[in-house]
Write a structure and sequence with these properties.
- The protein has 81 residues and is mainly α.
- The chain has one domain (3-77): Winged helix-like DNA-binding domain superfamily/Winged helix DNA-binding domain (Arc Repressor Mutant, subunit A), CATH 1.10.10.
- Helix content is 51%, strand content 11%.
- β1 (55-59) and β2 form a beta hairpin.
- α2 crosses α3 (39-51).
- The radius of gyration is 12 Å and the shape is globular.
Length: 81
Amino acid sequence: MNTTDLKLSLKQREILRFAIQIHRPFMPLEVCQLLDIKDQHARKLLHELVQSKLLLPASGSSRIRTYRLDNMAVQRHHITL
């Protein structure tokens, strides 16, 4: 299975690709810079990826400040980018 089987948008796939490459938690600002989008759009995409259980909050509980890749989800879905 790859990311297209999960019905992810191009931007969501780019976020996952970025998360896999950097191997560390990242901030929404980095997604804004990567995709040249506004903060609110980046946060919406990140929230959708958390709901899909592909990303996890890396810090914060009520206000998520950083995100990280859920490596188990990548393995579970056999994601190839």
